[in-house]
Amino acid sequence: MRVAPPLFFAGALALGLAAGRLPQSATYGTRARRVLGTVSIAIGAAAGASAFAEIARVGSNPNPFEPTTALATRGAFRFTRNPAYFGATSIYIGIALVARSLPAFVMLPVALALVDRFVVDKEERYLERRFGETYRAYRDRVPRWF
């Protein structure tokens, strides 16, 4: 890794938030937007915490700049091969909702494309080299994102 994966999300979110906010309006549903945003943030935090807990449980390293020593396949990793990035995406969506930032939503696909191309692709190639058939079997039964 050359760039910490959360920086892709943080950079896109910062650019989107800086680009502007939607005007307040009754049709946008202020209370519903806040509730949905808060729930999205909570889901993202839970997914991220679950990912880090499972990585710790198997005795591996959550730092993407360090070697992976064990393959995490339980907990949130049963549902997605990238629960930390799923969590970051959910937090991003929640913040964009609470902030009423349409430009932030526009930037989300950019962040996801960058993470998928420059982080996930590399991580998956590394994991396949490191864990071979064990990783391939895991990859074949668990989706990359959802």
Care to describe what's here?
This protein has 146 residues and is mostly helical. The protein has one domain. The chain has four helices and no strands. The longest helix is centred in the C-terminal third of the chain and has 40 residues, at 102-141. The chain is elongated. The relative contact order is 0.20. The model has no long low-confidence stretch (mean pLDDT 91).
Q: What are the SSEs and their pairings?
A:
Blueprint: H1 5-19, H2 30-57, H3 83-99, H4 102-141
Q: What spatial form do the alpha-carbon principal axes imply?
A: elongated
How far apart are the termini?
A: 23 Å
Give, in order, the helices and strands. HHHH
Mean pLDDT: 91
Number of strands: 0
Q: What portion of residues belong to β-strands?
A: under 5%
Continuous helix count: 4
Uncertain spans, ≥5 residues at pLDDT below 50?
none
Radius of gyration: 17 Å
The major sheet is characterized as:
none
User: What class, by secondary structure content?
Assistant: mainly alpha
> What is the percent of helical residues?
55-70%
Total domains, how many?
1
